[in-house]
Amino acid sequence: MARKICVTAADGQTGTTIAELLLTDDTFAKKIDAVIGLSMKPNDPNCKSLAKLGAAIVPHKPGTVREMVDVLEDTEADTICVIPPAHPDKFEITVELVEAAKKANIPNVCLISSAGCDLAEKDKQPRLREFVDIEQLVLSTKPDASTKAGHSPVVIRSADSFPCSSPNDQRSNQVLASSAGFYAENLLLYTPQIQKHQALSLPIGDVHKFSPVALGDVALVAAHVLSGEGPNGFDDKHRGQLITLTGPTLVNGKDLVNAANTSLGLHLKFENISRYRYPAKLFMSPSEAKRILAKQSEIDPSEQQYLLDYYSLVAEGKTNYISTLAFHAITGAHPEQPPDFFKAYAQEFSPQHHHVNKKRRLDGNK
Fold first, then answer.
1. 214, 300, 347, 359: which is deepest, by most CB within 10 A?
2. What is the pTM of this model?
């Protein structure tokens, strides 16, 4: 049976990339009947682009669960990809969506969460830690016999084990999907500084590493999950899985600029803007990092804080791992290496270029 997929936060880069891949790549398009983009900014250029590709754009007006249930029921979607929006009330809006999906009896639920959230601490990384509570809300529907929303969970987040049900369990169709903690494309936020000063300044310290993942790779996994079909909803290969996605290579700041310099012939330098350096205190002042983000990017302040929280995890040594086995098992391919990322965005990182094209790379057949 063809699938109707509702993608929330369709105006954002993650939502747009996933929806576009579902609509344009034959690997996925032939398996679905419709893509519905739910957006608080239905007139956003990204939504208009998706509409031209065939998506139905539905306004998202947060307020009450009851009204949200009516909106979801009107879409007739049997699958929802819940993406926390870039909004100061991200947590409240996402909780409302999850509760509405539960009451609307949408059987296939895929949550895009964040790797590293389970390592975050409420007093040091509050924005990142919120994802743990969102995940818990989604997962709590699994044993709830009053709703179909627990049928198909998939988690793309950490290496923690996830209790899978037997193949005949009709309550195990939920997919809790978490994105990697740091998209490689976040580096595009720093292109004004890179172009002007030939420097990349991040508050991550000099020692510990992390593994940036390309947004196109996350979208590719999500598209496979959302379009996959099995006797109980999502494909049994994905249903009930907790999936961790990171890039294939651990890097620190110097490694990043070396990859850019080698790939593009640049002469970038890395500047650590942490207040304290290892092995002294690991706590940092985010003030300079926050000023840099606010000055040269238009992302929501809540998203700025999310990035600062993640940088804090890096500086504390909590991101020294890679997780690529799930990506290969689901897609049959390998995630994008840092040099390939810089080559894909060579123009954006060029000192002569002054307009950042935030269009993400899409390739469902790589």
1. 214
2. 0.86
